[in-house]
Write a structure and sequence with these properties.
The complex is a heterodimer of chains A (462) and B (272).
Chain A (H helix, E strand, L loop, with lengths): L15 H4 L12 H8 L9 H5 L6 H9 L3 H9 L5 H7 L21 H15 L14 E5 L3 H13 L2 E5 L8 H4 L8 H12 L4 E3 L10 H6 L4 E4 L5 E2 L12 E3 H10 L16 E5 L3 H12 L4 E6 L10 H9 L3 E4 L1 E9 L2 E15 L5 E5 L5 E4 L2 E4 L3 E2 L3 H5 L25 E3 L2 H4 L4 H20 L2
Parallel strand pairs in A: 1-2, 1-4, 2-3, 4-16, 6-14, 7-8, 7-14, 8-9
Antiparallel strand pairs in A: 5-15, 10-11, 11-12, 11-13
Helix pairs in contact in A: 2-4, 2-7, 4-5, 4-7, 5-7, 6-7, 8-17, 12-13
Chain B lengths: L1 E8 L4 E7 L1 H6 L5 E5 L7 E9 L4 E7 L3 H7 L6 E2 L1 E6 L10 E7 L3 H13 L3 E8 L8 H7 L2 E6 L6 E2 L3 H9 L6 E5 L2 H13 L4 E4 L15 E4 L2 E4 H4 L2 E3 L5 H8 L3 H11 L1
Parallel strand pairs in B: 8-9, 8-12, 9-10, 10-11, 12-13
Antiparallel strand pairs in B: 1-2, 1-6, 2-5, 3-4, 3-7, 4-5, 13-16, 14-15
Helix pairs in contact in B: 6-8
The structure holds flavin-adenine dinucleotide (2 copies), iron/sulfur cluster (2 copies) and FE2/S2 (inorganic) cluster.
């Protein structure tokens, strides 16, 4: 009884005109019937191209079969054998470039909604599960320290805990989850869901110490002296880039990190939050990735009337997830593509407008994308009260500066052996954005998992 | 949770707290700071480490009650706990080997000045200082400063202690009288530090200042604390908070600090 529909079973979403006024989740998720209907679109291909597209090799046709069999717990087991944060990945993976991009059904029509199904399975499990307290057994295999509680750190820690290691995560912020908590907004990734996934990791016996800045509160060498036999660095790419143009330090110019942190971590969107955030009538967001979409949609929700995305390349080149671009457009975000800011104007220290120049695309550059070139004399101004800069992040230099023997690239990324994620320093491993620069949740998780295996190998053969 | 083991009221608006915070106490150095949230989901505010005790694993903070979060903090007493407390953040103050140092502290700026001067003294420098405030009751830590400084000069707005006016008055007088220093450390409100730098630049005396822009995370992640130093953008929380005062763009720093003034002072105090 296959479902031969060429398009995905639609997922219920909040009306754009309603949702751009609230912080509730945009996509509401499949019901059981909808999930089963969508699951029946899978062809159960023998060569499983979809699995090859998934950085952590989730056994996709198998878990989809379990959905058809209405054994949702079984589906959950199958997914979590490979992916410890399915409720999150189902929501934020760029599926169109990964699992779904390789799906046979996408050749003619739309792919199977793998992400939506994964999300459904995880949500179903979360609804029913009671999270037990850490069943802390005496550690059998040794102590490992993990720096950072983002997806890389969490997945490395949970894999190691499952293998029987005593794992401690050190996190500098007062909340855990890394970008999942301070970066990606509530309307795309509800925070209590992130917290639940983290509670599940904790229930494996992982200890999380917040408010510890590794490198300052304690160094990696000192962790080793304290008896940690290996250290995994998953410190992410938190250092915001700026454009280095005139007027960038005016009030009203934020990095996306500052803007999103104020809103997500400090709950500035709640009326009586002690941490304020200011948006005016006109907001200009610079950049075209997920971060830019999140900042723009957040500004809209905070009451900014005209929110612009200014991006120097074209629609094709927008690096954000397809779904986010679509949602942003539906919510009334104005896209100013092929434009680049050149100067920010202000009065009495406050932003008043941003000067932009039109761009056209030239030959492909090293990254394979066509290089934007400014069109002489095409400058124009956009009136703005806030400008949010979302043009990328680099790894924070702190770990590199305080860890002798740890080699990094000139741009700050930690250098690792690709197979083991081992760094130039003995028994120190790294993965996620700290190694690759800003990338994706699932790649960070894949790296954490790979490192866990390598750490186990190394410590067992010592 | 971080337990408060000592609390003292230094004057009408300034209080001191000693807090158990092992990770901070073990490693911190003069010039570094912490960030705390008084309550769950509270605001993260930065405060300089005024003192520390490595054995008891405690850190001392001295804060002026100016708004919502510092008011919340001041409602806490010995035995209570602070929700979040992270550090040490920022770089240790650059304390070059100087022979003769003048410390200038204004208001609560005296608190972070003290451990720096003490350290320089331990390193063998001769130390003088100028302390300023609204009136004699507003000048904190007089005894501690008198204990480590050869000469302590005062300035107060009403003349109730030392010379009447700003700390720049005794500073100019000292320099005009031919007193020489190879390092000045100035910590206080931005206009004070700006005025001091203006004077010391003329006399060619190296001057370190401690900047206190608005901070969110304190780890280099948000860029909200950016300041221009020597025409370059720096993040005060990781590159500072201490900088060469002669290179700081004070006018920009003052504009940036004013960003949330209205909200914070008016609505938020009223809300309580
Ligand atoms: C706004 C935004 C939207 C995004 N949207 C998507 C999306 O839709 N899909 C997707 O796949 N990816 C998305 N990404 C990218 C994705 O979130 C990251 O690639 C991923 O989180 C990287 O994981 P990580 O574990 O390497 O680092 P992070 O998530 O950055 O976590 C690092 C953690 O380490 C902590 N830390 C850093 N230094 C130290 C230290 N010295 N000591 C202790 N702790 C430290 C940090 O506080 C942080 O909690 C988005 C990113 C942002 C910012
Ligand atoms: C590195 C650093 C060290 C500091 N050390 C001390 C200290 O030792 N003692 C002391 O009394 N004060 C210190 N401050 C200032 C202190 O952080 C602010 O007074 C405090 O944040 C005010 O919070 P509030 O909620 O009580 O006041 P609010 O009502 O929020 O604000 C009052 C004023 O304080 C400033 N301010 C507000 N939030 C912040 C913030 N997150 N970061 C910086 N400034 C802010 C603003 O100029 C604001 O107008 C320091 C600041 C920095 C950046
Ligand atoms: S983890 Fe991401 S890439 Fe892998 S199957 Fe799930 S949604 Fe697809
Ligand atoms: S490629 Fe698509 S149709 Fe084939 S097994 Fe994977 S999900 Fe099913
Ligand atoms: S406070 Fe966020 S970068 Fe300095």
């Amino acid at each position: 009884m296959r479902n031969n529909s060429l398009t995905k079973t639609p997922i219920p979403v909040q009306d754009p005109k309603v949702r751009n006024q609230n912080f509730d989740e945009v996509a509401l998720g499949y019901t059981r019937d909808q999930a089963i209907e969508e699951a029946k679109r899978c062809l159960h291909c023998k060569h499983k191209p979809c699995v090859k597209g998934c950085p952590v090799n989730v056994p996709i046709p198998e878990f989809i079969q379990a959905i058809i069999d209405e054994d949702f717990e079984q589906a959950y087991e199958i997914i979590t054998a490979e992916n410890s944060l399915p409720a999150i990945c189902g929501r934020v993976c760029p599926q169109e470039n990964q699992c779904e991009g390789k799906c046979v059904r996408a050749i003619k029509g739309e792919s199977v909604g793998i992400g939506r199904l994964e999300r459904f399975v995880a949500d179903e499990h979360m609804k029913n599960v009671k999270i037990e307290n850490a069943k802390k057994e005496a550690s059998k295999k040794g102590k490992v320290a993990v720096v950072g509680s983002g997806p890389a750190g969490l997945s490395c820690a949970s894999e190691l805990a499952k293998m029987g290691y005593e794992v401690t995560i050190f996190e500098v912020l007062h909340k855990t989850g890394g970008v999942l908590t301070y970066g990606i907004p509530e309307f795309r990734l509800p925070k209590d869901l992130v917290q639940k996934e983290i509670d599940l990791v904790k229930s494996l016996g992982v200890e999380i110490k917040t408010n510890v800045l590794v490198g300052q509160s304690i160094t990696i060498d000192e962790l080793m002296e304290e008896g940690y036999e290996a250290v995994f660095v998953g410190s992410g790419a938190g250092l915001p880039r700026f454009m280095n143009i005139e007027g960038e330090n005016l009030n009203g110019v934020y990095s996306a990190n500052e803007f999103l942190t104020r809103v997500n971590l400090m709950k500035a969107y709640e009326k009586d939050s002690p941490t304020p955030v200011k948006v005016g009538k006109n907001t200009v967001v610079v950049g075209g990735g997920n971060v830019a979409m999140d900042a723009a949609r957040t500004a809209k929700r905070l009451g900014s009337e005209n929110v612009y995305i200014v991006y120097r390349r074209g629609e094709e080149e927008l690096p954000a997830r397809a779904e986010e671009i679509e949602h942003a457009k539906e919510e009334g975000i104005i896209f100013k593509l092929l434009n680049n800011p050149t100067k920010i104007h202000g009065k009495d220290g406050m932003v008043t407008s941003v000067e932009c120049i039109e761009m056209e695309l030239g030959q492909p550059d090293e990254s394979g994308r066509r290089r934007p070139i400014a069109k002489e004399g095409s400058e124009f101004e956009i009136t703005a009260d806030s400008i949010i800069i979302a043009i990328g992040q680099n790894p924070n230099p702190l770990i590199r500066q305080t860890t002798p023997g740890l080699d990094t690239h000139s741009w700050g990324g930690i250098i690792v052996e690709e197979e083991t994620m081992e760094t130039s320093k003995d028994d120190v491993y790294a993965g996620g954005d700290a190694v690759t620069g800003a990338a994706t949740v699932i790649l960070a998780m894949g790296a954490g998992k790979k490192a866990a295996k390598a750490i186990d190998n190394k410590l067992q053969n010592k | 949770m971080y337990k408060i083991v000592r609390k003292e009221v230094l004057n009408e608006t300034v209080e001191l707290m000693e807090v158990i915070a092992p990770f901070v106490a073990r490693k911190c150095e003069p010039g570094q700071f912490i960030m705390l949230c008084v309550e769950p989901d509270g605001e993260r505010i930065p405060l300089t480490i005024a003192d520390f005790d490595r054995e008891r694993e405690t850190v001392t903070i001295i804060y002026q009650v100016v708004g919502y979060s510092t008011r919340k903090l001041s409602e806490k007493n010995v035995g209570d706990s602070i929700e979040e407390f992270v550090g040490p953040l920022g770089k240790a103050a650059p304390l070059p080997s100087a022979k003769k140092v003048l410390g200038i502290g204004g208001g609560v700026g005296i608190a972070p000045l003290y451990p720096q001067l003490r350290k320089l003294k331990e390193n063998g420098a001769d130390v003088d200082c100028i302390l300023g405030g609204q009136n004699k009751d507003y000048i904190i830590m007089k005894d501690q400063m008198e204990a480590i400084c050869a000469n302590v000069h005062y300035a107060s707005d009403d003349g109730s202690i030392g010379s009447k006016g700003f700390v720049t008055t005794p500073l100019e007088k000292l320099l005009d009288e031919g007193e020489s220093y190879d390092l000045v450390i100035a910590i206080g409100p931005l206009p004070m530090m700006k005025a001091i730098c203006h004077i010391t630049k003329k006399h060619n005396i190296k001057t370190n200042v401690s900047l206190n822009p608005i901070m969110i995370d304190g780890t280099g992640m948000c860029g909200g604390c950016r300041v221009t130093v020597g025409n370059e953008t720096k993040f005060a929380c990781v590159d500072g908070p201490d900088f060469d005062g002669h290179l700081v763009d004070f006018d920009e720093a003052m504009l940036r600090q004013g960003m949330y003034k209205e909200e914070e002072h008016k609505c938020r105090l009223e809300r309580k």
